[in-house]
Design brief:
By secondary structure, the chain is an alpha/beta fold. Helices cover 40% and strands 14% of the residues. It folds into two domains: 43-50 and 300-388, Aspartate Aminotransferase, domain 1, CATH 3.90.1150; 61-298, Aspartate Aminotransferase, domain 2. The longest helix is centred in the C-terminal third of the chain and has 38 residues, at 287-324.
Amino acid sequence: MSFRTAPNLPDEGLAIGFQPSPPAADTRKLHRLYRALDRDERPFLGFPSHLGQVMAELAPLLGTFVDQRSGPYSPTVFDAATVEYEKAVLTYFAALAGASPEEAHGYVAASSREALLHGLVMARRGLPEPSVYVSEQAHFDVVRACELLGMNTVRVNALPDDTMDPDDLRRQTRMRRGAGALVVATCGTPLRGAIDNVAELRAAAAAFGPVRVHVDASAGGLTAAHSDQVPSWSLAHGAYSITLSGHRLLGLPVPAGISLVRREQDAPTALGIQMPDRLVVGSRSGLSALLLWTRLRSLGRAGVAAAVARCQDVAGYALERFEAAGASPERFPGSLTVTFDRPSDRVVDKWRLECFGDLARITTTGPMTHTAVDELAAELSAVRQGLAA
């Protein structure tokens, strides 16, 4: 077996044995790991560099156990106090998506993928025999979620700017007229941060039968909601359900997803039980909702808007600097994502760049400041000059 295919076995000192290990020794191991990670000078672009400050705010919550047995809008005797915090978070995100608490409900999920599963399940109800129409530029999680749910997926072409092609969507739905269409729009595509036009896609698919639009806005929802020219991306623009996230921009130490769905009266289940939330999971942690609430309260709506504006300014600056460096950058208007020619492996490794074939990208959250852009642009220029020489 070659070194490339050999299994990556755990360190013997980390093996979990039959007898308990000395807790003090294990604590020292974890402290050494923390110091090693904290000393790593390589920037992890797009992720928060201010977790020390965030953890100071959130530390008391890490000592709590919150087991929520139902959705925030279901009658329950468990953790009634924490549910009110979750409702406050959902009210905030619903307003960003153009809806009131009376118009949309949902819950805070442990991850964007869990929220996506919930949104897709809710959106396909009531459609005759729906296919799911997914852009070729959609996030892989969307395709994976459809596979897990056993949905028939139809890939739709994308335009040069990475948005879903409404003409191709119209052709695809015409071929399956009357069956119902679940269209998954994307707000923040993985490669260029493009935002699909929800109103346009809904109109294209509605000509041939019932349609519902789910928006995967995990990557770009917060940015779109605070842009100077708000695109057609949300519940206000005709979406039925939407998946959001905020841990990257808000700087949370754990992932968190938000699922919002238009309010409708659910039919009783086979057991005659009313289930207004129909969550993907039965028992869930309330910690993500508390972390989101704490962070949003510390920033306020003005603070979130200011953070988005700063990140957009850095993205615009990166576009200019990378262009001057000859890296052929691209950026969807208002996006925090800048795509450019993939540099050498040394630069990719040093800056922990996310790469897609011949392209690399940065997301201007976290440590991606104007100074960091200058440093990366200088390296891109040096690499290009070296190759030219």
